[in-house]
3-hydroxyacyl-CoA dehydrogenase (Zea mays), 518 residues
Amino acid sequence: MRSLGRTDRLGSLSEARAVLNAARQQAMKVAPNMPQHQACLDVMEEGILYGGQAGVLKEARVFKELVVAPTSKALVHVFFAQRSTTKVPGVTDVQLKPRPIRKVAVIGGGLMGSGIATSLLVSNISVVLKEVNPQFLQRGEKMIAGNLEGLIKKGSLTKDRMHKAMSLFKGALDYSDFKDVDMVIEAVIEKIPLKQSIFSDIEKICPKHCILATNTSTIDLNVVGEKTNSQDRIIGAHFFSPAHIMPLLEIVRTEKTSPQAILDLITVGKIIKKVPVVVGNCTGFAVNRTFFPYTQASHLLVSLGIDVFRIDRVISSFGMPMGPFQLQDVAGYGVALAVKDIYADAFGERNLGSNLVGLMVKDGRQGKVNAKGYYIYEKGAKPKPDPSVKHVIEEYRKQANTMPGGKPVTLMDQDILEMIFFPVVNEACRVMDENVVIRASDLDIASVLGMGFPKYRGGLVFWADTVGAPYIHSKLSKWAEMYGPFFKPSSYLEQRAKSGVPLSAPGTSQQGSARSRM
């Protein structure tokens, strides 16, 4: 207690104020939506101005307020939700033991394949990387070495561990080294015939216990494994890019995937320091399916006359790492074009056709890949909005022809936020209704770790419950009348809005058989 009264180490009041003001500005920059940083600084200031005793009393008062505040509840929810994802009924509660996975083959050494291989190597798992020709294999090996160098620069890997990791690596141009692998992860481009022929080949060569995994982000696993007789070993291992950094691993099961294969992949996920979330097999699985309206809604807003960069600013201010247009630049337009038809077939009238990406490509833009998208990308500099993209946007608006009376709509920032996120919540309701996830909190974790949804908002479904199903339903109903079926509320959302039951509460169907549990 005597130390509370000491002031001999404190500088002048003006010095203290200058330090606190600088810290406040830094906190506002780094964490503008989180109250605890400013609260800590308030407490320090109290102690400096009125003495240690006053500071301690204020600390107790502020703690009592913060601990029951929405941010605290959201963060506590995320903490426990993350620890629940590996509790999988019928898999982790039936006395099964995980089998050791010592050697993994990765097919395809592109961005995803090299990232997956990196994750395995730094966790002391031997990797065989297969490519179609020596040039591609060399490129894959270089990318892995580059990933490891990047981890050294960040301080998360030592040089010794890097050498150990590379000693576990082997490149291959055929399947001869696949005879003793415990798992194969296919990470080639999203082409169904190619994936089918790979699975047909590896089934013949790999040992009978080997798990046959695909990193597909959209294609139905039953289609991928159609030409094999090993449906019980086929599983989705959907990593997020960059795979050696992003913490989420979506484990996709079909109705035929064995509990043993699921348990083994959960275990590998933990070994390589990922957070595994087990989901059901459908187009886009849990994350990409839930968030398919995210980009589409942003395109709709642009067609209605809203500025691209304003949309990104609103979404970033909410707490996303970047807005939907910068995200599209970073992910590359190839992904958007590859899944366009898949989504159109799967989601029917609630899919919003947009040719904006096609027009961007036609204009010689490929996003961050060629440093020219909605933003300009210069080495070592922050992305800058590209004013020359205006003519592409104008052409898109002309073709879309959705502006009422040909004039841009007027929207508040709150409207923009809701028009982008409420359709995402609506799709999340369908995902829960169809039992694609085991529990709502799995979707919260998937949204936080896979899409960068702000952790301090508790994840997508948790946040939606704080907004309230009745309000989300009423807004979507209004927009559905104005802009069509893209906004039409799902039956799950409608029922929850009428009954007042939270969106996250388990439904009767969720307590029965679930697609994610089969």
Notes: The domain at 103-281 is CATH 3.40.50.720 (Rossmann fold). Residues 103 and 517 are 27 Å apart (CA to CA). The beta strands are 103-107, 126-130, 169-172, 183-186, 211-214, 234-239, 248-253, 275-280, 375-376, 384-385.
